[in-house]
């Protein structure tokens, strides 16, 4: 697909299909793993405030697509009492002049749709829009001409939005209303060529059955449905039961290659088979199984759903469908929803586009039903999923290298536990943790072992900052996984806090760590060292501002090893009231940067002023761009700025001048910088939006927003990125150290 829509925000880019026809990408070629949530009645059931709450929750849980009906029924009325259509005719949407939410005469149904679509874009979420639900077409309420007029109107209204995906159909076989569906699909494709189009079919069917060769369909979708193996008895169905991977396997064989995914598997909290509320309900382990099975079979993503959330069940509802018991705002926190991000994070953690399904990895029986093992691999990695923790026998030699490293990945929390190294030949056996039983699911990871290979670590803390040092890790500096625990508890400072941990590895291999040890009152920062990040020295307080008795704080100490002078430079922000012009800031919030140097972390040079740019400044990071060229990445902490800028100098200790304009939005802080290839990546905390953003640059003069090309686990806070030998990470993932 040729991307013809320009992004309307700094963040989002239109989605495309990868060159191999299997996956999704952003317009700049970054991998996009579809992690969808089912919010069918979002537009007509929720108010603006409720929609904000829902979208923020889904953003925090890692969802990047919301599937939603634009018109559920031709008599659609939303939470504000506004009808979608004139005379229940899709060809005549009911629109009014203006769009002010404060004026009910202006703010119509479609303005509300616009509001939610725009709010989703702000959070990096794409909206998969079903133009009109299939039951309306089945009932003869939409003619071919009405469909064309309506689709033309929709395309004109939304073609300039970057976060639109068109989902034709809606729980209906493609041959029921075939001419209508082809007209909607063709019109959307012609009038809005910049957005992907698919088809959402009836349960236990897939779009490829009717539309794979249609020029308007860019990717396939199946609805594996909500029935158990025993309930899948309807005449004419494929009778795959719960084996949703079989739909993916069938689509994967078709030509031309098109991405495919399960757009409606069994929902969490819904009765088996939908209609009998006395039946058992699908659980978090079931939605995990559907996800890993289908994705490992070759799907380009996965859509999760919850019974209460898909219908946005509210206290004032007179009734609910499918035996719903929960309210949507409680159900958004059911366990399955929070576990889906671990599927996305795992898939993005390794090279993405060369991944293929490969059952030849399995030695012996691949298994039936819940005993099924599903395997997928790239050139240097393999993932094998078991739903019940059964023994796994593998044919080795399917990925590169003489030796492989094996680990267990827990789909419930994303934590990795190292197993060990194995010869990459013959047959190897692996026994998952725990007892074999349904729901004891695990992913076995194999990685080509390369002695001396480096990985990225990202220091981190978690609010309220009493839990100590956390670590993220990455193989590409874009996609991060959480180690899942604290590796060092704070023991110094009045409040025993650990914020803003900064770490470097010295020439002798020792890791040095400094951190903010108190919000206010402390005259220094914490320090500890380690040879392996497992065993740590005694902690101590480095009271660098003790000579300034009125110092309010010592914030965000940042370490830099200066090869030119063979010493460590430590910079931090402090406020000394009445020392500098305060501008709009309070006297106790008017920061300047200070520094000290050391060669051994026992003796330190007297603290000196490092940077006074004429405004309150915090969270500064020194970067050596090249010999004799240094960059200081800093936060302008003045109102109304609160954003990230850069300055330039010829030495690590400055002076730094020529402060740039901001290259991040307001309310951003905590920058850290890492180089990968020719690009410098600058991560930052967009704390009002509750997300970690990033830009890339080659020269620190022009910056490209890549926030939606990176993935950072929720809850991560201000730290630094550095590279280590993979053996360091392996030691942290040893069972004995967890």
UniProtKB/TrEMBL annotation:
Domain annotation Putative collagen-binding: ranges: 356-447
Top-level taxon: Bacteria
Domain Arabinosidase BT-3657-like N-terminal per the UniProt entry, residue ranges: 463-542
SUPFAM superfamilies (UniProt xref): (Trans)glycosidases (SSF51445), Arabinanase/levansucrase/invertase (SSF75005)
Database matches in CDD domains: GH43_Bt3655-like
Limits of the Apiosidase-like catalytic domain: 18-353
PANTHER family: ENDOGLUCANASE, LMO1036 PROTEIN
Protein name: DUF4038 domain-containing protein
